[in-house]
Amino acid sequence: MTASENGRVLVRCDGVARTFGSGFGAVVAVHDITCEILAAQQVAITGPSGSGKSTLLHLLAGLDEPTAGSVSWPALGDRDALRPGPVGVVFQGPSLLPPLDVLENVALPLLLGGTSEAAATAAAAAALDRLHLSALATKLPEELSGGQAQRVAVARVLAGRPRLILADEPTGQLDHAAGALIVDALIRSATDLGAALVLTTHDPLVAARLNSGWVMADGGFVTPRDPRERGLTCSA
């Protein structure tokens, strides 16, 4: 791999496995996966519940560590420097803090990462504006619909201007219309930022909107939608 190609590799997994528990009770969630996620690509990972999608996403985000193999971030830096900033994670539920209003929720990760209050507030306001949510800035989470809350969670990720956006079943708790708005926001924002987007989903309509796709089963990859796709190159 040349230096320029290496600069496009945001995440690399080499022979990665993740096992929970030990002995007879051990559960192998992910096994023997080797893959790369490239800059600015948009990838859907599909598969049934229990296939390992969320575990893999957590490994890619640096939220979990493999029990075998290795995960690295060649173009992003060390694991400790991934968030907030280079890597943003959108979870299935919005996880907004009830006492904080929308603007404060979006700014919080930046503040915790050492950004000044003025800069964090400005970045949060810009992210809300990008998703047409400025009118909700002073609302509390309890005043939001499910779709609004999830869009705020997306804005919270975008405030850090990540180079890699990882979304774990972001539409799983929403109806079709609200879910479509979330996917719209993720795809548009990733494109605007020049960021890669990796999204896990059970919904084939959501998966079809991204330009690359992989299917997981029993902790490994099965087959890409099109073997020529380069959004996520991998073997299992």
Q: What would a concise description of this structure say?
A:
With 236 residues, this protein is of the alpha/beta class. 32% of the residues lie in helices and 27% in strands. The chain starts with a helix and ends with a strand.
Please describe the structure with a list of short key phrases separated by commas or semicolons.
236 residues; alpha/beta; Rossmann fold; 32% helix
Q: What can you see in these coordinates?
A:
By secondary structure, the protein is of the alpha/beta class. It has a single domain, classed as Rossmann fold. Helices cover 32% and strands 27% of the residues. It is built from 7 helices and 10 strands. It has a 6-stranded mixed beta sheet, with helices on both faces. The chain has a 4-stranded antiparallel beta sheet with strand order 4-1-2-10. A hairpin with a 2-residue loop joins strand 8 and strand 9. Helix 3 packs parallel to helix 5 and helix 5 runs parallel beside helix 6. The radius of gyration is 17 Å and the shape is globular. It starts with a helix and ends with a strand.
